[in-house]
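Page 42, continued from yesterday. The earlier attempt failed because a stray header line got pasted into the input along with the sequence. Redoing it now with the clean sequence only.
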Amino acid sequence: MNTRALLAIVFLTALSLPASAAAAISGTVRNSTSAQPAAGDDVVLLRFGNGMEEVSRAKTDAQGAFTFNETSATGQYMVRVVHQGVNYDQTVAGTAPLAIEVFDAVAKIPGLSGSMGIAQVESDGKIVKVTEMYDIRNESSPPVTQAGKRNYEILLPEKAALNSVQARRGTGVWVNLQPAPVSGQPRVYAIDFPLRPGDTLIKFAYSLPSAGRTNLHLRLAYPIKKFAVMHPRSITFKAERPGVFTSPGLAGGWQVEAAIAEPVVGDLAFQVSGIGIAAAPAAPARPNPASPQQPSAASAPPAVAAAPPAAAGAANSVPAPVPSASNEPQRTSWLAPLAIAFVLMAGALAFFWWMRKAPLRVAAAGSGAPPLLEALKEELFQLEVDRAHGSISADEYAESRQAINHTLERAMGKRAAAGK
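This time it went through. Structure tokens are written below.
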């Protein structure tokens, strides 16, 4: 059984036991730009089932309130508010009224910048693969969302093929994006993804033929406070100009080449040679079922260079634990935040991989560990949205849904027996 199916089982086991009669889904929408209720916004009720199905639509009233009565006791729902063309999603958990925050949309936010950027480089000797990730921070005041067709631009190296583009909010799930070529600018692609207040992560991967020594030229779309190139130690790195990078040590087993300038503005050029690919993760220590807590940084599995399944929406996620660096050079000024960012690039895979070793432990901790439940809700959300977007196979989806249905039937049967 795959990881997604196991997580979905645990999630439904934890949340379906206290099943009750269907209740209305209600809430209020507040415009945090104007500090007023968001009146007249479209509100869409979506159900996770056979994909993401639209159940009903409404509009917020003068107080920003909305109500949906078309619900079922066993349904899993998400509410989407559309404000000035930007979607704001919130999953439904429990019966408490929702409080959804929206922001006015603008074409450009002056002074937008990023807190951190990473370029991860690998090579098998024939193909060089580069994965860039940037944390763009919107600290506008009053808070607004930057929304436009060219919110972020990517410049590819010559002969490079774009493999994937994804984005997510700081506490969201990855969304697969379709970049658009910019007319008159070869190798430049534009991303239409709203930059809401707070953090937005942009991640894209591309590959190009290895030429023994491969020259890479990166163009930063926004000023980045801290930037680094990460590569296996078997790959040789050389900056185009001396004095641009320093080598503070290792993070998660990867060599770090940190840009000296803070912030980094414009272009960065360097050369790589040699062969090196991401190492497979080591087997984690078996969790103790008697300790239903989240994994600590010391006991968590190491980061792995893989992305989580892509999905759309704004469900909360749990950051994967930071790998221990006790045997690595102690350059905490760079390595501590960089290790965190590297784990973000790896995504939640390490965390879910750890949980797969102890599904019973997670189930026991479900009611008392909201972060774990949020992670499981996100995984269920990803399952349904991935199916809707065709990014998972029919067999994987069928296996997961079968496990969900079976577990739900067992949970409901146990509750009925207990009530007799």
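Notes: The mean pLDDT is 75.
Reminder to self: strip header lines before submitting.
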